[in-house]
Amino acid sequence: MITPLADYIIEGSVESLSAGNRIVLGDGLAKLLGLGLNKTIWLTSGLQEKTPFRISGIFRSGNKALDDGIAYGLLSEVQLLTAQSGMITDIAVRLKDVNRSLQKAGEWKSISDDKILSWEEANSNFFAIFKLQDAIRYSMTAAILTVAGFGIYNILNVIINQKKREIAILRSIGYRPNEVLTIFLLQGLILGISGGLIGLLLGFLVCLRIESLPFTNPLFSAGAGNMVISFAPAIYMQAFIQSMAATLIASWIPARSAGKLSPIEIIRGE
Predict the structure, then answer these.
(1) How does residue 3 score in pLDDT terms, banded at 50, 70 and 90?
(2) What InterPro entries does the annotation carry (predicted)?
(3) Does the structure show a pLDDT above 60 at 220?
């Protein structure tokens, strides 16, 4: 069974459809029509006379689009109502592995003239929203890392300008340019690591708070729930690695310039 309708029944039963001229409504649709269990509803497709159906069940799936607009009846009765005897407009197939839906759809298209869609193709507009969401998220991440990188760059530049005398002393006692570069590069990395760890902790605490807040989605009719937040370690690790990469790039430029300074240039500048 594609949809376990019996699991979503809140009043009546699915089995009662077999009595004939029975219908099962979504709870949202029942409320919109002002009808309840065992009430009679008259249906017509415009091709046949109005036919009375008794509401023998009410379901709630949690999907507002389904609960507000779907009704179930016996196939033979629906075919008679729509003057499409022996015809089926849609067939849904459940796969054990949903990731093979595109492959299976392609195979079936090659042997059938019917319109066949994978679940990804049937919900392409829905997936487009996620792609847009990902693009916005990546753009925001890049902007935040850029701002943080410029912050570290400016801090190191200020420190280097303040420590020119010390740099001159280090160079005069035998420190090589690479050793001076390493000193300031490590200083930048310390700033990045401490900032990254504090950011991870604050982000974790904010996510905990968001997860506890009540959340109502207009697409779902199951009432208020909670925002679903992923706390997968891979997400935090990825964020930390990205921050370290930005820190390394931002620290390298001023640290390299500090390593190139010579005692003579520093004295002349003083």
Answers:
(1) low
(2) ABC3_permease_C, Lipoprotein-release_system
(3) no
